[in-house]
Amino acid sequence: MEAVRDAFGKALVEIGRHDKRIVVLDADLASSTKVTYFAAEFPDRYFQVGIAEQNMTGIAAGLALMGRIPFTSTFGVFASRRACDQVAMSIAHPRLPVKLVGAYSGILSGNNGATHQAVEDVAIMRAIPNMVVVDPADAVEMSQVVKAIVEYDGPVYLRMSRDAWPDVVPPDYTFKLGKSVLLRPGDTVALVCSGMMASLCLEAASRLERQGISAMVLHMPTIKPLDIDSLVEAAEQTGCVVTAENHNVIGGLGSAVAEVLSEFCPVPVKKVGLQDTYGECGSNEELLEKYGLSAAHIVKAALEVLERKKK
Fold first, then answer.
1. Based on the structure, what is the number of domains in the chain?
2. For the segment 266-283, what is each residue's pLDDT rounded down to a tens digit?
3. 44, 45, 13, 48: which is closest to 27 by C-alpha?
4. Dist CA 151 CA 205 (whole Å)
């Protein structure tokens, strides 16, 4: 089990060895985002911009126009909120192949508190035209995601968690943009997740099984564009859905799922995530419990949505 950010840094180096178009711009957070690996290997392709995220975003756009594939490196709050206008106008509007890395995503930001917790970054980025939004579950998936987004000719927001999470993707797994992955079959309720919440959904599914409830776990690493076909199929098969995300329940994965199902397969939906609030300092376990993101809370949501399905 490897920290997702370490997997990102190592994958970036590996791909950088084969593709000299890749450059990295850093907003003074290299040790946190692990682009230190890239800086050590390719110092001539690493640019320390300093704490100037808006400027970094503009520079990345310029480098993309010159044929480079830039990765910008900062925390998710600064990549999304602080540099939003530059992202929209300089990168997304002309559809440039800039890869925006938003580290320390959600409330699990290493005791940094509300100023560094990206609880609305997905909502911001998925609302920007032309932007792809990806939220890998584990280190294995992250390694594949880096390669895939380099091959994608357009802007991508890559959400990256700080810590190590259990490996959950299948051994033969191949990541594809816009495609979900079935982590566990089930026919009573569908747990639809993104990012590190996948491991908590698997734990919740095991707890539900002990209660005689068959829970499907469907991981959506690509939040935009969403895998509509798989989502609708899961809803049709189970008749109710719980979404789980390390993000505000407004505008993120839960909202994306509800938008799709309201149009194609209306079923009861319960959203697990931050309930329109900011976080605070604390350990991962404390924050997951306080803000209702733990496996126990996912189980509770599943039981609630099952009651709604019966009615």
1. 2
2. 999 999 999 999 999 988
3. 48
4. 34
Each residue of 55-96: pLDDT tens digit?
Answer: 999 999 999 999 999 999 999 999 999 999 999 999 999 999
pLDDT tens-digit series, residues 8-22: 999 999 999 999 999
Among 126, 160, 194, the domain boundary falls at 160
Q: Let me know whether 119 and 198 are in one domain.
A: no
End-to-end CA distance of the chain: 42
Indicate the residue among 160, 194, 228 that finishes a domain.
Answer: 160
Distance, CA of 286 to CA of 91 (rounded, Å): 37
In this structure, how many other beta carbons lie within 10 angstroms of the beta carbon of residue 276? 11
CB 50 within 8 A of CB 2: no
Indicate whether 22 belongs to any domain. yes
Nearest to 242 by CA among 211, 218, 224: 218
CA 250 to chain centre: 15
Q: Is 70 helix (H, G, I), strand (E, B) or coil?
A: strand
Picking from 69, 85, 72, the residue whose alpha carbon sits closest to that of residue 157 is: 72
Separation between Cα atoms, residue 77 and residue 306, nearest integer Å? 35
Domain, as residue range, for 186: 181-310
Q: 101 near 107, Cβ under 8 Å? A: no
Strands 46-48 and 132-134: unpaired
